[in-house]
Amino acid sequence: MFSALPRLLPRAGAAWGASVALQQQGLGLLGSQLGSSSSASGALMSTFSAYDVGQSSNIKWHEGAVPTAEKEKLLGQKGAVLWFTGLSGSGKSTVACTLEHALAARGRATTLLDGDNIRHGLNKNLGFSAEDRAENIRRIGEVSKLFADAGIITLVSFISPYKRDRDSVRARLEPGKFVEVYMKVPIEICEQRDPKGLYKKARAGLIKGFTGIDDPYEEPDAAEVVMDAYDAQGKQRSPEVLAAELINFLEAKGYLKGHS
Ligand SMILES: Nc1ncnc2c1ncn2[C@@H]1O[C@H](COP(=O)(O)OP(=O)(O)O)[C@@H](O)[C@H]1O
Ligand SMILES: [Mg+2]
């Protein structure tokens, strides 16, 4: 279904080139504006309005940003957080990545926040204790909310084993903006896949507190989407098929349409 993926890559390169060119034009415009006569910049500035954002040194939430609905109208889509949860090896990263490419091919603005990557940067000071896992999810929930509020379809791929932590992210978002995607894959399959050898290490006692082995995974009980590992014939479903199911969901629920 999305097996045309490798053919998309040259196009992705071209898009990047175009955006760099645009940025350069933008910088050029700024430069000429600074050095330009006041009448030229006056004409440009007459299209702007100043916004009072209050005392920025005070820590208080201030409204004043362009409203989300307006950004969504510009983008022709609705901002949302697609929160992939499931055991290690359940295919969160693979399906999220396949979906992101499929959305990009349809001209959608997306971002993908992936557990491993975020733990290299923003959350590199956090470990795997229950407390640190909660803080990990809280931070990523806040970041994903910022993206969704900007109208971006935000794909988030974290084991996020505790229901309470996932629910507190859900509670931070407007109704309909948090889409829980449960990768319902039995642990035996995840353990067979074990691409990073983590289950093997956990079974050998070399990793403590490993989800599904000696730390619990709490299944969602009201996930918007449940990605079953098997089809009706008992065959494992491919990442392309799972991503296609998610595209259908997004289309059916109106996420791929802006406000009219
Ligand atoms: N639907 C699928 N069918 C078969 N193998 C899959 C599927 N999804 C993922 N995989 C494979 O399983 C392994 C784990 O996938 P990954 O996306 O890294 O899981 P997670 O991010 O949940 O830890 C990878 O080797 C990947 O190629
Ligand atoms: Mg992953």
Using brief descriptors, characterize the structure shown.
260 residues; alpha/beta; Rossmann fold; 5-stranded parallel β-sheet; 10 helices; globular; disordered N terminus; binds adenosine-5'-diphosphate; binds magnesium ion; kinase activity; P-loop_NTPase; kinase; Adenylyl-sulfate kinase
Structure in a nutshell:
By secondary structure, the protein is of the alpha/beta class. It has helices spanning 5-35, 38-45, 68-75, 92-105, 115-120, 130-149, 163-172, 187-193, 198-203, 239-252, and strands at residues 80-85, 110-114, 153-157, 178-184, 225-228. The chain has a domain at 78-252: P-loop containing nucleotide triphosphate hydrolases (Rossmann fold).
Question: Your description of this structure?
Answer:
Pathway: Sulfur metabolism; hydrogen sulfide biosynthesis; sulfite from sulfate: step 2/3. This is Adenylyl-sulfate kinase. It is an enzyme of class 2 (transferase). Pfam families: APS_kinase. It is a single chain. With 260 residues, the chain is of the alpha/beta class. It has 10 helices and 5 strands. It has a domain at 78-252: Rossmann fold. The protein has a 5-stranded parallel sheet with strand order 2-3-1-4-5. Helix 4 (92-105) crosses helix 10 (239-252) and helix 6 (130-149) packs parallel to helix 7 (163-172). The two termini are 30 Å apart. The structure holds adenosine-5'-diphosphate and magnesium ion (MG). Magnesium ion (MG) is lined by residues 92-93, 114-116, 157.
